[in-house]
Specification:
By secondary structure, the protein is α/β, with parallel strands linked by helices. The protein contains eleven helices and 31 strands. Strands 1, 4, 5, 6, 8, 9, 10, 11 and 12 form a nine-stranded mixed beta sheet that branches. The chain has a six-stranded mixed beta sheet with strand order 18-21-24-27-31-30.
């Protein structure tokens, strides 16, 4: 994989994730306690032995840049490895990046000056999934493709007006592309499902440069991909069928022993979420909880890396467990990050770094980001709470959507979202 460069799109505003994206770009939104969304894509690259990475930021990118510099400065230039953060430079006119394709076009000189590159992998920095890009590369070469597009099977009704949809023949040759169609084309042999683009593209380098030089479009999905059809060999890569990741996981035996089990194909090999809105963000975090999570952060062979801050271990205060109401510090089916102190009760939730849940408080099915204090006797349910909030004692959030909407964003699913610093300390 020394001849492949991964380009990660990291400039999106993520307007549907507002207010979480008011002060940060979408790929830098915290996820799973102490990770950020871009860590998932970067970890997939490292686990696939791709060590030439280029990140293209734009919108409110400082926290993203800080995170990458602090946690991903692991590459050896002497070995030909690098992670380049390529900020917009107006190299082709008086405009910033106008879209995914335009961002690559404006940096095409970086591709041309590396003679060792033969393939360009285009990735998004805001999807949650595990993918072996080396397996993707092998399929690309075995099928003699000029361009390969990773696809996932989606119910046709759910795909309508939501995803870019591919039309393919029985050999997965791409014959058509529709951008968010009202009536998605069915996949071969299954009229109820369609093939949605995952926004993951593998190009031969010379094809990439030729297309960007000839085409005027600014977006890969909307402009570039449709223009490839009939001119190049474009293949669809069935992600769920081909992406067989093996890993170690643990099971607890009846006598309490934890036994390590090697699975040839992990449950989350076919998992993929486009964290495009607040409901999908909340869902993706909830998928991390439980005994057998839909997306597993604890595998040994496919680790998810990040920058870990220096905080003490999480602490659970159990005094007063027999009181009425109980004051016991417990977290059930939850992820609790470093620096947390739990004196109340946490269930089915994800807690970021340095979160304090005070006595008699209850937190259910919620995502709480860094540096938040939940006051005594608070009731928090189905909420997303951004950083730097001090929730006053006796506050109720998530129990009365009508009242919550007077102050906060409440999603279609009923998730209440508290912006950064709404409650002062």
């Amino acid at each position: 994989m020394k001849d492949i460069l991964a380009i990660i799109m990291a400039g999106g505003k993520g307007e549907r994730l507002s207010p979480l994206t008011l002060d940060r770009s979408k790929p830098s939104v915290p996820f799973g306690g102490h990770y950020r969304l871009i860590d998932i894509t970067l970890s997939n690259c490292i686990n696939s032995n791709i060590y030439k990475l280029m990140v293209l930021p734009q919108y409110k990118s400082q926290s993203l840049v800080d995170h990458l510099e602090a946690g991903w400065n692991i590459f050896s230039y002497d070995l030909g490895h690098y992670l380049r953060i390529v900020s917009p430079q107006m190299r082709m006119g008086e405009h910033w990046y106008k879209g995914t394709a335009d961002s690559v076009r404006q940096n095409a000189y970086l591709l041309e000056r590396d003679p060792l590159l033969s393939h360009i992998l285009i990735l998004s920095g805001d999807h949650v999934y595990k993918m072996d890009y080396a397996r993707f590369r092998r399929h690309h070469e075995e099928t003699k493709a000029d361009v390969s597009i990773s696809v996932i099977e989606v119910d046709r009704r759910l795909a309508a007006n939501t995803y870019g949809v591919l039309e393919v023949d029985d050999d997965f040759n791409v014959k058509g592309f529709q951008e968010k169609p009202a009536e998605p084309a069915p996949m071969p042999g299954d009229p109820e499902r369609t093939l949605a683009s995952m926004g993951i593209y593998l190009f031969k380098k010379e094809v990439m440069l030729d297309v960007l030089n000839e085409a005027a479009g600014t977006d890969f999905g909307h402009d570039i991909i449709p223009g490839l059809l009939g001119r190049y060999q474009v293949k669809a890569y069935p992600y769920r069928a081909m992406n067989a990741i093996s890993d170690f996981t643990y099971v607890t035996q009846p006598d309490g022993r934890r036994e390590r089990v090697h699975e040839e194909r992990t449950r989350d090999s076919g998992y993929w979420r486009d964290v495009g809105n607040l409901d999908s963000y909340w869902n993706a975090n909830m998928d991390l909880c439980g005994v057998d999570p839909y997306f597993n952060l604890y595998g040994e062979l496919w680790p998810i890396r990040t920058h870990l801050q220096q905080f003490p271990p999480a602490k659970f205060v159990f005094q007063g467990e027999r009181e009425t109401p109980p004051r016991a510090g417990k977290a059930l089916d939850s992820l609790v990050s470093l620096g947390c102190i739990i004196s109340g009760l946490v269930r089915n939730s994800v807690l970021g770094v340095n979160v304090i849940v005070r006595s008699y408080a209850e937190v259910d099915e919620s995502v709480i980001l860094d540096d938040v204090v939940v006051g005594r006797r608070c009731r928090i349910k189905k909420a997303i709470i951004d950083k730097h909030n001090y929730i006053p004692d006796d506050t109720r959030i998530g129990y009365d959507p009508v009242e919550d909407r007077k102050r906060f964003t409440v999603t279609e699913r009923g998730i209440t979202v508290i912006p950064k610093g709404f409650f002062g300390g």
